[in-house]
Amino acid sequence: MMKSDIRTILRDIQAAARIGHIESLWAALDQLQAIPQVGGNHPLDETFLNQVILPVGKAVSRTRTSKSALRPLVNHPLAAYRAVAGAALVTRFLDGTDQTSPKDLNGLAQDPREDVRQAVLLAAIQNADANPEKVDELYIAWQQSGATRVQALAYQILPYLPGEAALEKVYAFRESLQDHPAEVRKTLSNVLCTLGANGQSQAVFEILTYWADQDEPDYNAVARSLSKPWAACCPEQSLEILTRLAEKAGAKKRIRKALQNLSRNGAEEQVKDVLENWRNAENPNLRAAGNDEKLNL
């Protein structure tokens, strides 16, 4: 389908939303099924979510339809419509419309389709600057959920909260990392990467050092956080943490990736020096990591 055709569909939906006649809106929304990704129920990438789903969700949010009137979208068999419902309800919650609450988003926030959950997240973080208190409220509600998928969404909001508030919330997990499911720990690692890249590197290093010093550290979570370019800003600190991990874990894929990241991003000589030290160490795990044959520098 041509981009011009998609723009026409968007204009029709936005016009129907402005008029506010529910049947006209449903008729306009039906046109989305002419888009192959929607009609075929295919995975929706972030570009499509930003260019199509979020504008449609925002238009729907501004109609005078009640929350109950949106139920056909919330329960629609096609993921794109559920994504639209998620974007619309998040926007209404942030705008304080129709007494919309985080509870109204529970089903969509744990939708089996990742793209639906991503639409909910994008709608929240793109309005974070204008509504920081409401976004924080959303974070608290999702973080307290018993559903792993909903908790993961909460943690993905963290980098978009004001820096000090985000760090304060991350510190709350400092001593309880192992209590969380693997999906949540992975999300927290990605959050630390974002915070490190946004000028909070020293606070992030403090948290990673604490995690690395545990008797049985989650080396995947720690090394994943050091596998992005931000970690090369302070190669000595990054390599010190990786050394603590390697002492306990030996040669591991995640540690290898972190070393390769540092080498690619300007710390090649420092990495070579550390590997030489590992090879000559008394600790057998360090020697194994230093002689990792799969390490490609």
Describe the structure.
By secondary structure, the protein is an all-alpha fold. The chain contains 17 helices and no strands. The two termini are 44 Å apart.
Main features:
67% helix, mainly alpha, 297 residues
List the helices and strands and how they pair.
Elements: H1 3-19, H2 22-30, H3 36-39, H4 46-61, H5 71-74, H6 79-95, H7 106-109, H8 114-125, H9 132-143, H10 148-157, H11 163-171, H12 182-197, H13 201-212, H14 219-225, H15 235-249, H16 253-279, H17 284-290
Count every beta strand, where a strand is a DSSP E run of 2 or more residues. Answer: 0
Q: Which secondary-structure class do the elements indicate?
A: mainly alpha
| Biggest pleated sheet | none
Amount of beta strand: under 5%
Low-confidence stretches: none
Instruction: Assign an overall shape.
Output: elongated
Helix content: 55-70%
Q: Compute the gyration radius: what is it? A: 23 Å
Helix-strand pattern: HHHHHHHHHHHHHHHHH
Q: Enumerate how many helices there are, as a single number.
A: 17
**Mean pLDDT rating:** 91
Distance between the termini: 44 Å
